[in-house]
Amino acid sequence: MSAASVEQFFNDERFSLTAIADEIMERHPGYRVEIIGGHLLVTPSPDAPHARALTKLMSPFMAAGLDGGETEVLQNVAIWLPTGVEDYAIPDLSVVDADVDHHLIENNAYDPVCFRLVLEVTSKNWKDDLRTKVGAYAEANVPVYLIVDRKHQRLHVLTEPTGGEYTSHRIHAPGETVTLPDTVGAEVTIDVENIIKEGQSRAS
Questions:
Q1: Residue 202, Cα to own-chain centre: how many angstroms?
Q2: By three-state DSSP, how is residue 38 classified?
């Protein structure tokens, strides 16, 4: 996710978080709104380094043949979450089953059963990606959660979701090459240094 995040908690049943989210997006085009555990997360459009890292990340997935056949590689597709009746998140990148269109639940969010991997590229609201979303994606049983941590310049690979948490959490630094689990659908290898470098600002 990108830039600053505004987080609010609504306790009053008179409020529909989905309606509030829709209103925010209507009034602020380009903003991303997610609902996780009763929290409304609002983030502005990504900066250029965020978008650049995401573009570079698509290459190994495409090269592995994941965008076609049994799977697709998609950006900004909402995943319905079991953490609340209105909960959903919008990962920066996902690997999904090719029949994803048949798994639409509501509010443009899809059943987590068709997600093989979700990926987030952090920005100023990095705590959301490294904390809040970890439990949410694990609760949804997404097999692989990949985080490009631009703040700390490392790559997180979380796998084996059980009981609302990932039992495997590996952290990789620049200089390492990471091969993702077979559950993604193909052998995908990522150069950590290359991705971290792309996520840094080129301004002097």
A1: 24
A2: coil
